Amino acid sequence: MTMLTSSQLTHDRARAGGLKAVLPYLRLMRLHHWVKNSFLFLPLFFAGEVFNVDLLLHTLWGFFAFGLVASSIYILNDFMDRESDRLHPVKCKRPLASGEVSPAAGLVLSALCLAGGVTLALFIKEKFLFVLMIYFFMNLGYSLGLKNVSILDVFILALGFVLRIKAGGVITHVAISQWLMIMIFLLAIFMAVAKRRDDVLIKLSTGMDMRKVVKGYNLDFLNVAMSLISAIIIVAYLMYTISPEVMAQWKTYRLYYTTMFVIAGLLRYLQICLVENNTGSPTKLLLKDRFLQVTLLLWGASFYAIIYMPNFNLFK
Fold it and tell me: How far is residue 82's CA from residue 98's CA, in Å, rounded to a whole number?
């Protein structure tokens, strides 16, 4: 067995120490939330251009630009909320709330992320930068106080996803169906309402308001809102799949088959929220819940088979 020299041990410890020092900053950027930027690729998927390498590469650069600007907002929001986050059972572990990262260092990292995202967007397309700046200033307003206005707060969160879809269409010159925009907007509102429900549950269990906006919500209102919006999402999706323009585009009427997976996914999410009382972050739920993962996979596979494999025997 080879013995490690003292210099090698010192080097390994230095590397481990360096990585440990960087991790809080990476967590502060919330890199796992960058999965939301995958919405930029949806226009390509729904337009049948998902195998166009040039468009994919352009969208990938947009993905990173959007991620950096989004991270700048996440950091700023954590900076503004660091005092209230210390009272939250989960958010108290965030780098700024826990003290792992100083407020000054957090602001510097936020500025660097913004500068990097804007610079990258300039090389992609000016119109893309315009959409990205709308996203930035809208969320800046959210961080500075609009998040305390009930209902408006969930609309701002939902519009962030709509702007991601719009940005993807701008980068690739792909026309976006109005039904797609409506569905994404409704789905995003649905998830934002679920997050507010989690805040209300925490208030009921601890007696503390984790957010000022929670005063404008209660469980009855949020339960009704989630049920109402999920029903509208299903109707909107059905209307999308049977709309004449979509059937003419894909020369098939069979897209409505995929509705079963949309319904199953929404019912599972409602089950998690209303039965298990486990709402929290939609991103984390998607990364952990096997039922949601399988449902999303089956929806994507069935949609792919219908529009990309029209001669597949099952769909003849």
Answer: 8
